[in-house]
């Protein structure tokens, strides 16, 4: 159970399926509704994805005015595929002394308190608080030494209260108007792996990535004013407005050498002691140049309209914000900045002393540019095609800021440009009945199955555009992929199987994440202990310029066994 109040699209697939089924059933008549509604309720229970649910139970106190939910969790990855250079010191220093390079202990507490609830006025307070302790750098001496000291501190545990508070807002609802003030995570439609219409919150990829982790666990909350107004217009239009007064947060890339980051030896230029490499040096400057609170420059705003027309649940969105990623605004300074590290590496190689590039330059190198996004979603229930739910998401970025570098290299920037980008995703969802298996193994519960095709086009493309952060291969204006999601609850939900897979057509790379969960008695309805065992498997073609593609950062040699234990309440 999620304790958040209000209008978020939590568990978008399940709510979508239920909503569209009920709308369809309403037109079919009362007798047919009964059977379909029963199926919908069962579908709701089935569709809470094991890999994607923070908490399914709640503790009610003070006669229900105070509701608590959350979890305690450990997630450990045991690498089954590694580069020899990550362990063998004959190559100039190892980065690991253990195949366990990720062991994250985390906790989440969500609190919902009802201040007032009478007549048509409701006032609630919501807070989400998280904590983590990443044990791998403490257990792995080589990993600890190879991390920049500031990055190591941020990676191991929270350093600031802003990191602990994931969400904190007051929710006021009076009649058709609802207002939320505070730090929030916004969901404007989301798919299993691709972000299309979900454009508001930046991601934090240091501890997880889409397809393996819950979207909300890798999103960064923003302080904002958010208002909803339920109109009586045709289509039952819901109007949502968002204004962020200047709380800017950037996309956080994983640190080099950590589980989700690039391999350390690839970025250790002239570094005989396996200390933090070139990418870390550049990343630290990006963090230093990130904007902070600024009402005049860093404000963000947008709106979403949601309606139901001709059996289609649809939305239209507009978002005006700073880009989540950094762009080199001063190529000359960037060159001198990189040279500062290279010269320190040469001195270290000659003298045998530890690498000391000195302080980061005070002059600004990176900037975070403003652009606009329009987009939307549409979904409908289609009975003739095996009672499927179809979903469309799209975006069009206007003047998206991009970098130019020699042969698309991030390390050789020479100009910044703007390009328009179009992205489209189409998803189909089914509830499947498989003879014998559904009845006896799944004990009557249907299997969830979805397919998603994603396509993205950068207009006015040229060979020097830096597009590694968009999963494009070098000199290709288009990227596309197909992903699948399968879920089967077995033996009265004591065992749950989930599979997430993805294939990038242009890059020729694939990902497969099978996972099996055992739920201890009573945990399905009342919370409790769950144990997950699974695997992360990656593969596919290798390309000459794959170092310019983010896919190679978290796919190559990152095959792992997943071990997760969770206590939910």
How would you sum up this structure, described in words?
The chain is of the alpha+beta class. Helices cover 18% and strands 40% of the residues. The chain has helices at 12-28, 30-46, 136-139, 141-146, 149-156, 161-164, 278-288, 331-351, 437-441, 523-526, 550-555, and strands at residues 59-61, 66-79, 100-118, 121-134, 165-174, 177-184, 222-230, 238-244, 300-309, 312-322, 327-328, 366-367, 370-382, 388-405, 413-432, 447-458, 465-466, 478-490, 495-504, 509-519, 528-540, 560-568. The protein has an 18-stranded antiparallel barrel. A hairpin with a 7-residue loop joins β7 (222-230) and β8.
Distance between the termini: 9 Å
List the uncertain runs: 9-56, 544-548
Largest sheet: 18 strands, antiparallel, barrel
Portion in beta strands: 35-45%
**Helix segment tally:** 11
Instruction: Write down the overall geometry.
Output: globular
And the CATH topology? Porin
What class do helices, strands and sheet pairing give?
Answer: alpha+beta
Question: What is the CATH top level name?
Answer: Mainly Beta
Radius of gyration: 24 Å
Q: What is the CATH architecture descriptor?
A: Beta Barrel
Let me know the number of strands.
22
Can you tell me the number of structural domains?
A: 1
Overall pLDDT level: 84
């Amino acid at each position: 159970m999620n304790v958040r109040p209000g209008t978020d699209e939590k568990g978008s697939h399940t709510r979508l399926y239920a909503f569209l089924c009920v709308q369809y059933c309403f037109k079919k008549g009362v007798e047919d509704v009964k059977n379909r509604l029963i199926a919908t309720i069962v579908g709701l229970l089935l569709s809470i994805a094991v890999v994607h649910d923070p908490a399914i139970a709640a503790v009610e106190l003070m006669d229900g005015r105070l509701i608590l939910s959350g979890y305690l969790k450990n997630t450990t990855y045991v690498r089954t595929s590694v580069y020899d250079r990550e362990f063998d010191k004959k190559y100039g220093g190892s980065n690991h002394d253990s195949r366990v390079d990720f062991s994250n202990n985390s906790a989440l507490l969500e609190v919902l308190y009802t201040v007032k609830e009478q007549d048509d006025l409701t006032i609630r307070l919501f807070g989400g608080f998280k904590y983590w302790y990443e044990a791998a750098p403490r257990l792995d001496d080589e990993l600890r030494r190879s991390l920049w000291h500031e990055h190591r501190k941020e990676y191991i545990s929270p350093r600031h209260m802003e990191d602990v508070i994931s969400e904190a807002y007051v929710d006021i609802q009076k009649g058709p108007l609802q207002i939320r003030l505070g730090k929030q995570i916004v969901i404007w439609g989301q798919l299993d792996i691709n972000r299309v219409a979900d454009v508001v919150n930046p991601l934090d990829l240091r501890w997880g990535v889409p397809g393996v982790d819950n979207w909300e666990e890798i999103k960064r909350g923003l302080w904002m004013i958010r208002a909803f107004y339920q109109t009586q217009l045709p289509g039952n239009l819901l109007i949502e407005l968002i204004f962020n007064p200047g709380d800017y947060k950037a996309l956080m890339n994983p640190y080099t050498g950590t589980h989700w980051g690039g391999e350390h030896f690839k970025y250790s230029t002239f570094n005989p002691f396996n200390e933090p490499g070139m990418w870390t040096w550049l990343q630290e400057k990006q963090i230093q140049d990130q904007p902070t609170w600024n009402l005049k420059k860093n404000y963000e705003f947008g709106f979403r309209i949601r309606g139901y027309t001709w059996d289609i649940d649809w939305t239209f969105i507009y978002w005006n914000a700073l880009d989540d990623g950094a762009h080199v605004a001063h190529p000359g300074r960037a060159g001198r900045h990189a040279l500062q590290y290279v010269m320190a590496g040469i001195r270290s190689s000659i003298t045998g002393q530890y690498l000391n590039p000195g302080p980061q330059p005070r002059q600004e190198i990176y900037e975070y540019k403003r652009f606009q996004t329009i987009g939307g979603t549409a979904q409908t229930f289609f009975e003739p095609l095996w009672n499927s739910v179809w979903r469309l998401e799209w975006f069009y970025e206007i003047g998206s800021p991009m970098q130019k570098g020699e042969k698309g290299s991030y390390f050789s920037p020479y100009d910044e440009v703007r390009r328009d980008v179009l992205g489209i995703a189409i998803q189909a969802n089914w509830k499947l009945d498989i003879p014998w298996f559904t009845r006896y193994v799944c004990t009557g519960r249907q299997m969830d199955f979805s397919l998603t095709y994603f396509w993205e086009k950068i207009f006015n493309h040229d060979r020097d555009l830096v597009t590694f952060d968009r999963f494009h291969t070098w000199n290709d204006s288009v990227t596309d992929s197909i992903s699948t999601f399968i879920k089967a609850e077995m033996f009265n939900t004591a065992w749950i199987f989930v599979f997430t897979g993805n294939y990038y057509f242009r890059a020729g790379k694939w990902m497969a994440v099978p996972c099996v969960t055992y739920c201890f008695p009573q945990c399905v309805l009342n919370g409790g202990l769950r144990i997950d065992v699974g695997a992360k498997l990656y593969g596919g073609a290798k390309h000459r310029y794959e170092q310019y593609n983010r896919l190679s950062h978290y796919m190559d040699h990152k095959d792992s066994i997943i071990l997760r234990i969770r206590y939910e309440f």
